[in-house]
Amino acid sequence: MLGFRDIRVVRGERTVLAVDRLELSPGIHALVGPNGAGKSTVLLAAAGLVDLLRGAVLLDGSVLHDGVAPAPPSARRRTALVFQEPYLMSGRVRDAVEIGLKLRGIKGAERRSRVDRMLGRLGIAHLAGKRTTKMSGGERRKVALAQALVLEPEVLLLDEVTVHLDSESVAALVGILREQAEAGRRVIVVATHDATLAGQLSATVHRVEDGRVVPAGDALGACCR
Amino acid sequence: MILDGFRRALEMLFSLDPDVWGPVWVSLRVACISTVLAALVALPLGLAIGLGRFAGRRVVVSLMNTLLALPTVLVGLVLYGLLSRSGPLGALGILYTPTAMVIGQSVLALPMICAFTVASVERSDPRIRLSMLSLGAGRFRSSMAVALESRAALAAALAAGFGRVFSEVGVAMMVGGNIKGYTRNITTGIAFETGKGEFALGVALGLVLLVVALGVNFAVGYWNYRGGRRQ
User: What is the largest distance, in Å, between two alpha-carbon atoms of chain A?
Assistant: First the structure.
């Protein structure tokens, strides 16, 4: 269970996130709302990458983040975040996807096997030897997804992940996310403008407005209000 | 006189005249060691200042930028005061040695490399650090990633530091003493030889100074170009 307690995030004089209490149970959750509503900030708070003026983010009762960012590495390694505009380190795709596994001390053979499996599942095995700086927007996003998914984190945070992706890739991603959600007690949070995606994922939908998170019921309702 | 000076200068260069190549060797050796020593402090310091968030950070950056204009003669003067026989470090007995030149030139290169490092990491893409942190890296690993991704700018910082010390004359003259075959380097050699009317030798040394300075910048530029093509 991913919990937000009495969270306040401010930028300058402006409060950009104010969540008194939010509990996200294992499964897929979609955050929907207009630009600048605070969807990305919710994800950054959960990932321990934004300063919290007060409050705490908890995972299964233990504190993930409760103050100045970044949160300790041990807490951050329980989560993985795919940014809206992902940055890939220069080098080969395989090396980029391996970074998180190396940081977690996963040894060579297992690391290679997990990376190969994930690249294959996302249909980008042929990109393994390609330089990250020579890729299209869609390819970069898929590599960023592979970087996060290969970690099999307890909390997976995805920010507008379907931008630049073709329908085939979106379908593959939906399959992987649903499988990951069903396989374990994993919390997956997807910030999206795409109500269809929320529907495909059978996600619990939360609407974000002016830095506040409110339950929105079904995906269509959230989209069309 | 100028054309004749150039002709004689080229003769001296190609005949491997020790009066030319001795100071060149001193300049290269002292400038390289000084740049490396300064970089060992300036690169981590620049990364810490550029990526850090602490009170007084802007003041530190301004101070570092101000030190870019530090007069070389002033550094030489202070160092002379410290290292002279009656100075607090006089017992070390290193005044008028290459060691004293290395210390002085390291002091000159440090703010240059540090300020360039701060500027390059401040201008680097903020997503580099965030991406590494989101993958589970600690502060050190994420800072190293920023340095690695900014390597072209950091190479330029090192080249600027090397250029600063390779072409300076104040420190070398004041704490090196311009001793022939020992601490005479290119710049002190030019000043001394031209002063006593040996224009050709001054020109020969000047040509080497120019070629090395341009060579370092071309090398850094080519390395960045190749890096860009590989990416």
Answer: 50
B221 is written with which tokens? 């530029």
SS3 per-residue string spanning A74-115: HHHCCEEEECCCCCCCCCEHHHHHHHHHHHCCCCHHHHHHHH
Give the pLDDT confidence score for residue A225 in this predicted structure: 42
Long-range contacts of A59-67, Cβ-Cβ distance < 8 Å, separation of 24 or more: A59/A1, A59/A2, A59/A3, A59/A154, A59/A155, A59/A187, A60/A1, A60/A154, A61/A1, A64/A155
Q: What is the pLDDT of residue A224?
A: 42
CA–CA gap between residue A151 and residue A78 (Å, rounded): 9
Q: Report yes or no: B148 at the A interface, CB cutoff 8 Å.
A: yes
Q: Name the minimum distance, in Å, from the CA of B142 to any CA of chain A.
A: 11
CB contact under 8 A, A85 and B141: no
Question: Number of Cβ pairs closer than 8 Å across A and B?
Answer: 57
Q: Residues B177, B183, B185, CA angle at the centre, nearest 5°?
A: 105
The pLDDT of residue B230: 58
Inter-chain residue contact B130 with A49, CB threshold 8 Å: yes
Compute the distance between CA of residue B165 and CA of residue B29 in angstroms, rounded to an integer. 11
User: pLDDT by residue (tens digit) across B115-156?
Assistant: 999 999 999 999 999 999 999 999 999 999 999 999 999 999
Burial zone of B58 (CB within 10 Å; 0-12 exposed, 13-18 middle, 19+ buried): exposed
- Which of chain A's residues have a Cβ under 8 Å away from the Cβ of B141? 103
Among A86, A3, A88, residue whose Cα is nearest residue A42: A3
What is the dihedral angle through the alpha carbons of A216, A217, A220, A223, rounded to the nearest 10 degrees? 10
Nearest alpha-carbon partner for A31 in A20, A11, A46, A14:
A46
Distance between CA atoms of residues B141 and B51, nearest Å: 12
Global ipTM: 0.91
Domains (range + CATH), chain B: 25-196 (1.10.3720.10)
**A100 in contact with B, Cβ within 8 Å:** yes
Helices B151-166 and B199-230, axial angle in degrees (round to 10): 180
Spatial separation of the C-alpha atoms in residues A203 and A177, rounded to whole Å: 11
Report the predicted TM-score, pTM, of the whole model to 2 decimal places: 0.85
Bridge partners, A63 (sequence order): A58
DSSP string, B178-203: T-TTTT--HHHHHHHHHHTT-HHHHH
**Contact with chain B for residue A89, Cβ under 8 A:** yes
